[in-house]
Amino acid sequence: MNTAIIFATKHGCTEKCSQKLANELKDNTTILNLESAKEIDLNHFDVLVLGGSIHAGTINRSLKKFIEKNLNQLIEKKVGLFLCCMEEGEKALEQFNNAFPEELRKISKANGFFGGAFDFEQMNFFEKAIIKKIANIEDSYSKINYQNISAFALELSK
Ligand SMILES: Cc1cc2nc3c(=O)[nH]c(=O)nc-3n(C[C@H](O)[C@H](O)[C@H](O)COP(=O)(O)O)c2cc1C
User: Fold this and answer.
1) CB 7 within 8 A of CB 18
2) What's the whole-number mean pLDDT along residues 87-104?
3) What is the CA(8)–ligand 1 centre distance, in A?
4) Ligand 1, atom 28: nearest CA belongs to which residue?
């Protein structure tokens, strides 16, 4: 089985989670960053994992566009969907439902909430100011949920 993890990231957390997931999947797995990947031929892959992060309530624009463009092909594949975000519970679920269209969520074999990270080294001035105020923190902080990544890999492999 050929698997592709197609992701978008702003500060690198989703990339880190994609690499961790690739290590957990037994299949032949390719990791593709939507910022740098040129044309992606979905015909090469049997399994497609789509991952992105939430900023100000919304999913990465490049991932949204990719899904819109390829939706008809995506729904014919074995698909897994994951999010990196700092919200948890109901709020995280709401963000997930807004990020991925219903057609895709309906056929998805595995849905994952991989947690997230605030990386001050990667943020611009405004982002730092917002996060310091909202999250009330001064330093970088990670709560990547490695257990959820393992559980997602297991679910997708079934
Ligand atoms: C400016 C900013 C806004 C954010 N807004 C949200 C948000 O609305 N909801 C949320 O759950 N997480 C939010 N986050 C947390 C990100 O989802 C988290 O940092 C994630 O790990 C980013 O992944 P990335 O580095 O792959 O882009 C925000 C982070 C930043 C820096």
Assistant:
1) yes
2) 98
3) 12
4) 55
